[in-house]
Specification:
With 102 residues, the protein is α/β, with parallel strands linked by helices. Helices cover 31% and strands 28% of the residues.
Length: 102
């Protein structure tokens, strides 16, 4: 099973390394940890999500679906906060995300 971990912290106020470490520990403690393939999208930008997901498809298009775990800030129904190329926050709306994952 493929897991994509997206990390975004434009405010530089979260300890994402701790969250990722805990996530990896849980996966390592699973009954069959070798069934998981983890790809880390550290400091992910909104325009990189599709490329990161397609990278998994190239590895094995017949493998289980991707689980996407987002570590960062959200704004409730407004969406998720990524970092823009210029370092500013880049809000990706819930509607845009829903259409993408659809």
């Amino acid at each position: 099973m493929k897991i994509l971990i997206l990390e975004a912290n434009p405010h530089k106020d979260l300890s994402l390394d701790k969250e990722i470490r805990e996530l990896r520990r849980v996966i390592d403690d699973a009954s069959n940890p070798n069934q998981f393939l983890i790809k880390d999208g550290a400091a992910a930008k909104a325009n990189q999500i599709q490329k990161l997901m397609l990278g998994f498809e190239k590895q094995d298009p017949n493998d289980d679906p991707i689980i996407v775990h987002f570590c960062g800030h959200g704004t409730g129904e407004k969406g998720l906060v990524f970092e823009h190329d210029n370092g500013e926050r880049d809000l990706v709306s819930t509607e845009t995300l829903a259409k993408f994952f659809e």
